[in-house]
Amino acid sequence: MANVEIAGLTKTYGTFRAVTDFGLSVRDGEFLIFLGPSGCGKTTTLRMLAGFIEPDGGQVTLGGRDITHAPPHRRNIGLVFQNYALFPHLSIFENVAFGLRRRKQPEAEIRKRVTDALELVELGHLGDRLPKQLSGGQQQRVAIARAIAIRPDILLLDEPLSNLDARLRLQVRDELRNLQKTLGITTIMVTHDQEEAMSVGDRLVLMRAGMIEQVGTAQELYYQPANRFVADFIGRTNFLSGAAIGNMFRSAGGCRCAADGIWVRPPRS
Ligand SMILES: Nc1ncnc2c1ncn2[C@@H]1O[C@H](COP(=O)(O)OP(=O)(O)O)[C@@H](O)[C@H]1O
Ligand SMILES: [Mg+2]
Asked: What is the pLDDT of residue 188?
């Protein structure tokens, strides 16, 4: 089981709180999204899960095993970054084989897993090329193949689509979604793009200033936002000040309408 339990995760830089008391249960096989504006702590949280940043407090368990202080290579986590981070002097095949060679897998097993991973991202025919001979979209698919070749318990992706142009971004996004469903790997992806988040994620974790504002499906965040920040961040929202009286809403300007289906919140929530 690759369910992840995160409790009270905290990271402070000097006096600045980058992540505060972050708690969450990630279900086995789930595609979860960390969403929020730039600087809200998405990358810091992901890197604490990967083991590259030591938290100041809190706990992470993976399938019941406490990994809070385990080094990255003991976590069996697949990682994909924004900038592909392929080795320029290694062939595509060897890039994907890298993690398997480090784990000292037998040669026949390496051949099989690399071939399978490249087939999954539809690049089986390009194993002999160098990264610079591939397009950006293809390079990012190699990075994804490399991450899944080690058969990780969890896949962590930090803005994996943001270096791609608009058309490729949609294509790789759909491929990633299909691949995740086919393989059933528990996946956490970071993005600041709400449309991207809503189109691929089973659930979204919307963050602000190092804290979680709301966790839920795209529909839940859209139709039942926990507060004004969520309503503002998700979708295109118009805000009207006024008062709800029974089933009626009366705007500050005197306009009345039925409040049925309108989301009404007290001010300053
Ligand atoms: N090494 C660091 N030293 C000081 N501040 C940092 C460091 N890394 C990140 N931060 C700060 O922590 C906050 C969260 O950063 P980050 O997790 O990268 O945000 P996000 O990925 O959501 O854009 C930002 O305000 C950032 O400037
Ligand atoms: Mg980031």
From this structure: 97
